[in-house]
Amino acid sequence: AFFYIVFFLLDKHWVFSTKTGKNKTQDEIVRFTIFMGLNYLLNLGLIHLVLRSLEFTYLSNVELTVFATTFDIDLVIAQLVASAFFAVWSWLGLRYWVFRHARHTHHAALTWETKESHVRRHIKYYQLQAKQKAKRAA
User: Fold this and answer.
1) 17: closest CA among 88, 85, 108?
2) Could you give the CA distance from residue 86 to residue 10 in angstroms, rounded to a whole number?
């Protein structure tokens, strides 16, 4: 539970850098809890499906089967598939459902931005700079 709290706080204040009121924060906590619970169930289901599909795709090579069984390769492959899926799924869910009020993510590499929104953002930036410069001059 401690790490989910840390994960929520880091996402809210660092990754998605949203400034919301108390009511919106409570809504985000509820949505975050629901989303993480859903992620847990989906993760279990996806791992189960991958493990089931791997049962039918093994080669008949005895050494390969013994190696895979000894080192639990099935489970490793299932976890890798689930991790790749949830890396994308979690970011999309957090960005567009849990923290939907965030205007952009803290990191430009994680922000999908159109040319128009890029121009608007820079116009606002230059307008803000001009206001601050005028205040300093006054």
Assistant:
1) 108
2) 18
